Amino acid sequence: MTRHKVANAQDQPRAGNGLLVTDFARSFIRFRIDLNQIQPKTISQPPPFTLNNARFPLECRCRVTRGEGADARSVDYVLGASCKAEQVHVRENIWHDPAADMCIVASSDEFLVIKSWDRNNRGVMLSPPTLGEQPERQVGKCADAFTDLRIDVRESSGQHMATTEEIVAAVLANRPLVSQSEFSTPDGARVRLEYPVKVINASEREMFFQVDTGPVLVPDASAFDAAHAISALRLAFIAHNTLGCTELLLNVPTPIGPGISVNHYSKVLKVAAQNRIVAVD
Question: Are 167 and 275 within one domain?
Fold first, then answer.
């Protein structure tokens, strides 16, 4: 059975004089593979175990809303932290050859596994090979691939930094920061992101700040496969500053030679976003 548990930190409930935001250090996506109940569909080597629980801290929460009024429909997605393709529970030779970067995106019922090798179309087969070649972007229903999948979100209170001066002071005081960005995509989707601010620039002399952080999730119509809504999501980094500029740098197949491409952050998307920064208590 696939379970799903999410607290609605993106709805911004009040906590005293502040806001509740996602505590990303204590929020996780966890999936369970029990070979006695289900055969995995996302691995490339036979597992030397019968049961495994994989836990990933959250990097981003993303709510995508389509439609207007009573017809509006929202779906919540989360992005788990990146890891490397590994063989679990072995004495040696842990890393896969060829090596791959891997992360998972999930909603209440769909998953997206993103894997990147030294080049795209690497020809790595799924296990068993009868499942075919492992794609860079594998989508499906959670219940078909995992015995259980949970999204556990913890919240912390925080203070909205309403001025540049407050943000700069919070940076120089080493306060943990969470940012929220809302914008519309070219195909009309309304997106609300919440993510930890890992990297930020600030100056108390010129009095500016600029967020440069990620990865986050961004819908990209060119990635949509029509069968799974989650397929439209891409990884991106986000930058925004005091001058009103908000830009996303999307991870897309990027040509590096004739017939050869790699997954790289190379596609710029400029959006008119409403950005907030919250200093976490």
Answer: yes
Question: pLDDT (tens digit, 9 = 90+) per residue, 170-210?
Answer: 999 999 999 999 999 988 899 999 999 999 999 999 999 99
163 and 142 share one domain? no
Nearest to 104 by CA among 70, 59, 71: 59
Backbone angles phi, psi at 25, to 5 degrees: -70, -20
To the question of pTM greater than 0.85 for the whole model, the response is yes
Got the DSSP string for 129-193? GGG-BPPSEEEEEHHHH-SEEEEE--EEEEEE--SHHHHHHHHHTT--EEEEEEEE-TTS-EEEE
Q: Per-residue pLDDT tens for 53-109?
A: 999 999 999 999 999 988 999 999 999 999 999 999 999 999 999 999 999 999 999
Residues near 251 by beta carbon (within 8 Å), at least 6 away in sequence: 215, 234, 235, 236, 263, 264, 265, 266, 267
Domain with 85 in it:
26-152
123: which 2 tokens?
């020809």
